[in-house]
Design a protein that fits this description.
Elements: H1 20-29, H2 34-57, H3 60-65, H4 67-91, H5 95-99, H6 102-109, H7 112-119, H8 126-135, H9 139-142, H10 148-186, H11 197-208, H12 221-255
């Protein structure tokens, strides 16, 4: 996922700078005016309340007693989010880019389930309808697009992606090797829980992450020694991704220091105050 794929600055305003469409674009996509900030706050509250409604709807006692209220409330939220989605598509210049961006897809998924339920009313589709209802939980992802600080975290996570993938590959290699050894040690024991290598890998993941369910345990002395090594290894491993993300997050925070500038075209942070052109897209600052 590209963190700038739905950045407000990339969704360019309409051509006419003083038109109603441009003013509406600024309210919806930016947060640099009182009206835009108020819009974001209201939207965040509505998203949060709509997610709570979905949670309450999953409770049988509440659903049976307040089904009508919950259903009406859900339709009110759906209509509001539908209007919001239509306005986003209408106001942005590059509509396809927004519609197929991460948050554009999330915006669409957040409204589709309610409309699809209308056409899937048969009893045979009950499980499908339940899944569609749960898809409304994706609305919580809409919050990120209305919180400016979220882009700092998204940028840091993307910058850490390659390092974390290498780290996860290393951890997976360690787990596979040690779990295979554990299967060799414990697999031949009577009533052993290590009945296969995949079962041993499951135990290895639970152990090295220090979760420790205890549903699978070694019984031999050698097996317990290997398990102890994995447990100690887990403590050292947990700190690695935290350090990687923290370093990138600190870099992002340095890039948006008060004396730096953002590109008006692509939204790239960290330009020198004296810079004439954007270092990413070449746009004149």
């Amino acid at each position: 996922m590209n963190p700038h794929s739905v950045h407000p600055h990339e969704t360019e305003p309409p051509v006419a700078p003083s038109s109603f469409k441009e003013r509406l674009w600024r309210i919806i996509f930016l947060s640099d005016t009182p009206a835009a900030r108020a819009f974001d706050i209201v939207l965040l509250w509505l998203i949060g309340i709509s997610v709570v409604v979905v949670m309450l709807e999953s409770v049988e006692s509440i659903r049976s007693q307040y089904a009508g209220i919950l259903r009406t409330t859900e339709w009110v939220f759906t209509v509001f989010f539908t209007i919001e989605y239509v306005l986003r598509v209408w106001t942005c210049r590059n509509r396809l880019r927004y519609m197929f961006s991460f948050f554009g897809i999330v915006d669409l998924i957040s409204i589709l389930p309610t409309f699809l339920e209308v056409f899937l009313t048969g009893s045979g589709h009950f499980m499908v309808i339940r899944v569609l209802r749960l898809l409304r939980m994706f609305r919580i992802l809409k919050m990120a697009s209305h919180m400016g600080s979220a882009y700092v975290l998204i940028n840091a996570l993307q910058a850490s992606r390659s390092k974390i993938l290498v780290f996860l590959f290393g951890v997976l290699s360690i787990v596979c090797i040690e779990s295979t050894l554990m299967y060799i040690i414990e697999g031949g024991q009577e009533n052993s829980d290590f009945t296969s290598i995949p079962q041993a890998i499951y135990w290895g993941i639970v152990t090295i992450t220090t979760v420790g369910y205890g549903d699978i345990t070694p019984v031999t002395v050698l097996g317990k020694m290997l398990a102890s090594i994995m447990m100690l290894t887990g403590f050292a491993i947990i700190a690695v991704p935290t350090g990687i993300v923290s370093a990138e997050l600190n870099r992002e925070l340095q890039a948006i220091r008060p004396d730096s500038r953002n590109c008006p075209n692509c939204g790239q942070h960290g330009h020198d105050p004296a810079a004439l052109y954007c270092k990413m897209c070449g746009q004149k600052m």
